[in-house]
Structure prediction request, 190 residues.
Amino acid sequence: MDIPALIQQHGLAAVFIGALLEGETVLLLAGASAHLGLLDLRAVMATAAVGAFLGDTFFFLLGRHFGPRVTDRLPWVAQAVPRIDRLIARWRWIAVVALRFMYGMRMAGPVVIGAGKMPVWEFMAANALGAVFWSALIAGLGYAAGHAVARMLGSVVGIEKVLLALAVVAIVVAAVAHAVVRHRSQRNPD
Prediction:
């Protein structure tokens, strides 16, 4: 199995899928892969920005459409909506962008914002800005980490590529498994 070839062939698809959800780890690894020449950094950033924008927009529209049903069934969400509305009223775009960087809020945040009062056009504009900023920052950090690892390992580039590729595959599999388990537990609470 040629792991670097798999990354080159399917890396951007993994970045897109990861960015639809909470894809920091996948994006960091894609940035490191870009440093190794396996992926193009600009393509990684653009793919992640599009995936993040579409994912958060989907969850916002889900909250907008199903918000009343969600708040009726989940009292903690109903209690969060006024607080999120106050946060949005005070900080507007900054709040939307900041939620992108809060672990565990990438999906829940847009749903709650969608259930609130923020206009769709304003969320979409702030979401686009946040997606571009997030993808550039996280992919850039991954690229810098790849550079640091390459400098530490020196001429061990072949081993570095294999280890990075194995790490990418392991993290993608773990992230998908985690998402499936979390989704199942949310659908069937004990």
In short: The first helix runs from residue 3 to 20. The mean pLDDT is 82.
